[in-house]
Amino acid sequence: MRDFIMRHREGLLLVILVISSLLIISRQIQHPTGVSYFQRSVIAVTAPFQNGFRAVVGAVRGVWGDYLYLFGTRAENIRLKEEINQLRSEVQTMREEIYRAGRLEEFFAYQSETGFAGMAARVIGESPDPWSRTIVVNRGQQEGLKRNLPVVTPDGLVGSVIQTSDHSSIVRLIVDRSSRVPVLISRSRARAILEGEGSGTCQLKYLDRTEDVQKGDVVITSGLAGIYPRGIEVGTVTQILSRNYGLYQYAKVMPKAPINRLEDVLVIGTEPGLEGQ
Amino acid sequence: MRYLYFPVLFALALLLQSSAVPAILPEWFVEGFDLPLIIAVHIAISRGKIPGMMAGAVIGYLQDALSGGVLGINGVSKIVAGYMGGYLRTKFFVGSLAHRTAIVAGTVFITLFGKVGVLALFDQPHPPLMSAQFLWGFVGNTLFALFTHALLDRFESYLGIRAEEELSLGD
Description:
The complex is a heterodimer of chains A (277) and B (171). Chain A is an alpha+beta fold. Chain A contains 4 helices and 12 strands.
């Protein structure tokens, strides 16, 4: 027996690990009880590092733009160039601050226009799985975030909170393949379900083939699922995929929110709070 | 050094993948760049099946926890990557670039195929096998894995940890 185990230890380990993993997956799918302690701990531990990494990456990008192209110039100009770089860096920082202040103003304006009170949050990370479209924001349970809260920008819907830890949360984007949002075509009031396509676009599904939908139509949330309030702009129809058979027609939708370059978002349904950025 | 090396490597891979890579590189590029997979493949090819599977399990489960998806999807696919990388390295000559390409491509393909299979088995959304996302995932990760493997190989030789690891963990 011992010889058998030793001889086949690699295969046995593979079988044990794979079966254990499949059981873990199966259990989660059958009993979706929310976030496990393991997941919450991993998110809590990594959030400060992700925040730091984002800051470093931002600084490196700024330096790349402001400094590296000067590399290799004459030695006697080094001091002057360092001064220039320092000033440029300060200008860059101030521009960034002005830009952020502008975005927060937009959030304020959006809240007063729509009546959706919420809390601004900064994007500090994205999903490490290329097939999953989620982001990590720097607000968590301690700040009042909880599962299923909608996340928006003044441009449109971004997604919803799916996991929270103390000071950070994971948000599933509307372009994620698991995302489902009940929506309306703003012009014709036709109902459909918006599903993510995994890349930068979404698809309208379960749209009755007799309904009127046109390229350029604006898609808004219908408020039916109880997660997203009615009337949030989601995207624009870019292509109709209609066949000669079947009950439904389909359409491609380009999200209005800048899904691939999100920096700050508004989590609605929480106590208002734009401070602490 | 050798005890710290793997935790640091895993942490760096996950942080780079979640924070730096999407901020610097275009979206289509990121879809073909799964750094945790590349690290799991490297460990499997350089150390063998058992270290490959263990590394795949750790980094895959951490990746699942950070991505907010179902826990175990990346775990199981990277365990398979660890096993396949370790298995294929015994069938080919790792020192030859052509053979190494075959090992890496085979491991990456089986891993992505396995991931789609697990997602389909549990009725979870997944990219179709004949999609640009899947094909770029295969080609991109194979190319990056070859490059990363060569880079880490030299780095480990420089640190002097390769020989120790191979003596203690080799097949």
